[in-house]
Design brief:
Layout: E1 8-12, E2 17-24, E3 33-38, E4 49-57, H1 61-78, H2 86-106, E5 114-122, E6 126-132, E7 136-141, E8 144-148, H3 157-165, E9 170-171, E10 174-175, E11 185-186, E12 208-213, E13 218-224, H4 226-231, H5 234-245, H6 251-264, E14 271-277, H7 286-300, H8 307-315, H9 332-343
Antiparallel strand pairs: 1-2, 2-14, 3-4, 4-5, 5-6, 5-11, 6-12, 7-8, 7-13, 9-10, 13-14
Helix pairs in contact: 1-2
């Protein structure tokens, strides 16, 4: 299991999967996101993997619990020989509900708090996406967005019907005028409607589960908390990720740059993302690398002066070969890197020795420690 604020990643050569993950606290007072990544699942053959992003509210406790314990509930529900696809879909629903029941048994009575969750379960034949709340997943296939989860908001027709049937109200687009999502782990104050099963409460922990048959054209799948999607559209994110993969960036470095781009675009939230790359992911392209190096050089000549002033001056210009989706916002790290380098007393004129690709060495791998999530 991988977890941590630093960018980290891993690969499973047997099934051609690679992943990277990164998280930032952003402008929030506390970090309430958590995530987990399992490239192998005990008791299941090679080719099964599990990833999840959880976005807590009212504290980090529920998100941390989910990151540590949701995989175990999934494994228990799957059993040693899960039937695909319907048996697995049912297992994921049961796993979310059983994890929520376990969390409730441990939760301090009367305390607020909960977490959204989006999870990817990979098998050799299918991609299973399970989500509750507004953390989101997106699949890129053959150069286009092939699937994206839909946020669980109180005004979605099915959600609104359940809320009203359970005696709840929606005010200011929020459940009881307070909660912006209608499905989550935790939030037990909204799960007290008498005589109703857990999946029919005001807030439900039942996930929406989608099974997608895998195809050779599958490129990558992005899981992220809502702060990422608030800053960039799915199409923009897909374009940015594909362009960075063509530069040969490791998935963990790509995730870190993606979050930097979202910060530069104005996201104020905690943000976490996991990028899962399949064998069909874009490969390094010599032409793309040459264009990026040329852009690096061109922007490097414009870095003098106040960073904010330089950025907004460049933003008004027509600069060729900016990264799709992210544009100049996704190149802001170039200026920050150059300033850090100058502050450290580095010599100028290092050229391609300090190129985009060599900067991958600045990202360390997070140790995989199954006890790190407490």
């Amino acid at each position: 299991m991988g977890w941590g604020g630093r960018p980290h990643g891993g690969a499973a050569a047997s099934c051609g999967l690679r992943f990277g993950a990164s998280a930032v606290q952003g402008w929030r007072a506390h970090m309430e996101d958590a995530h987990c990544a399992w490239l192998e699942l005990p008791g299941l053959p090679p080719g099964w993997a599990f990833f999840a992003v959880l976005d807590g509210h009212g504290g980090a406790r529920a998100a941390l619990f989910g990151a540590r314990h949701l995989p175990g509930h999934v494994l228990e529900a799957l059993g040693p020989a899960p039937g695909e696809p319907e048996g697995v879909r049912g297992a994921l629903r049961r796993a979310f509900l059983s994890a929520d029941a376990r969390l409730r048994a441990l939760w301090p009575r009367g305390e607020p708090g909960g977490t959204t969750a989006v999870a990817l379960l990979v098998s050799p034949r299918f991609l299973y996406l399970a989500h509750c709340g507004d953390s989101r997943a997106m699949l890129s296939r053959a150069g286009a967005v092939a699937f994206s989860t839909e946020d669980h908001r109180p005004l979605r027709p099915r959600e609104r019907e359940r809320i009203h049937n359970a005696g709840g109200t929606i005010r200011r687009r929020r459940l009881e005028g307070s909660l912006a999502v209608s499905r989550a782990l935790g939030d037990f104050a909204y799960k007290e409607a008498p005589g109703r099963p857990p999946e029919l409460q005001l807030v439900s922990a039942e996930p929406e589960v989608t099974a997608l048959a895998r195809q050779a054209e599958d490129e990558f799948l992005l899981l992220a908390s809502d702060g990422v999607w608030d800053a960039m559209s799915g199409a923009a994110l897909a374009g940015l990720v594909a362009s960075r993969l063509r530069l040969g960036l490791a998935p963990e470095l790509l995730c870190a740059q993606l979050l930097d781009t979202c910060l530069c675009k104005g996201s104020l939230d905690n943000m976490t993302c996991i990028l899962v790359c399949f064998p069909g992911a874009p490969r390094p392209c010599e032409e793309a690398i040459k264009k990026e190096l040329a852009l690096d050089t061109a922007l490097g000549h414009r870095r003098e002066g106040c960073l904010n002033t330089v950025f907004w001056t460049l933003a008004s210009e027509d600069i060729p070969d900016l990264p799709p989706g992210g544009g100049l916002h996704s190149s802001i790290y170039l200026f920050e890197r150059d300033r850090e380098h100058e502050q450290e007393g580095g010599a100028e004129g290092e050229g391609e020795a300090d190129s985009l690709l060599s900067r991958q060495s600045h990202v360390g791998l997070q140790p995989q420690d199954p006890e790190i999530m407490t």
